[in-house]
Design goal:
- With about 220 residues, the chain is mainly α.
- The protein has twelve helices and no strands.
Length: about 220
């Protein structure tokens, strides 16, 4: 049976790659027949592989379908497996502009408190930050931006990222703090922003610092 399912999944992915259009793929008799007779019972690995393949093709609606199917039929308890499915749901909903669901499954993923590569956690936090901002939940957006910034500071101190990457994280946090009218928080963020003396009330301190790094000529009107 397992061999048969592996072969079926392989054939379905070949069909998806050939069609390359999700709406058309959804109407293919071969795929509709496959959906009708397969559920998540004892097929977690195979259906996860199917969802991964559909994600690569940006067939987000079907990724969501199979991810929920796995959860409904298996009630996964393993944290790593749950995280894998949550990850698929987060980015499928995000790419379909369903920001509420992105936040819902993003939080479930974070609640697992698994040790993950920094880049993976950042991707989740960015999707959640943008989603919260899109639906004007600026306080939540600030929260996710702050968590993102904490990770970026660690990466910057290890020299894993460049200065402009860290500055972008600061800028995102400030943007959301201002949008939520949290001026106290924004002032605190600026106070902690010591790169190029950006926390100084004297703009000349910033110019001197940037000039030392050979970056003053990048400013508008620097000529």
């Amino acid at each position: 049976m397992a061999q048969s399912i592996v072969k079926q999944v392989s054939e379905i992915l070949k069909l998806a790659k050939k069609v390359r259009n999700e709406a058309e793929f959804q109407q293919k008799p071969q795929y509709k027949k496959f959906k009708a007779k397969n559920d998540g019972r004892k097929l977690q690995r195979e259906l996860t592989h199917l969802a991964d393949g559909l994600m690569d093709l940006k067939f987000y609606e079907e990724c969501i379908y199979w991810s929920h199917k796995i959860f409904e039929d298996l009630r996964i308890s393993d944290k790593e497996d749950r995280h894998t499915v949550f990850n698929t749901l987060i980015f499928s909903y995000y790419n379909l502009n369903n920001y509420e669901k992105t936040l819902e499954y993003g939080q479930k993923s974070l609640d697992l408190e698994l040790e993950q590569p920094a880049a993976q956690t950042i991707d989740t936090l960015v999707a959640m930050r943008v989603s919260a901002s899109k639906i004007k939940r600026y306080q939540d957006a600030s929260k996710y931006a702050k968590e993102h910034l904490k990770i970026q500071i660690v990466r910057y101190n290890r020299k894993d990222i460049k200065t402009h990457d860290l500055l972008i994280s600061y800028a995102n946090l400030l943007d959301h703090q201002i949008k939520e009218k949290n001026m106290i928080g924004a002032k605190k963020t600026i106070k902690n922003l010591k790169i190029f003396n950006l926390n100084s009330i004297d703009s000349n301190d910033v110019l001197v610092s940037m000039n030392k790094e050979g970056l003053k000529n990048l400013l508008p009107l620097s000529y």
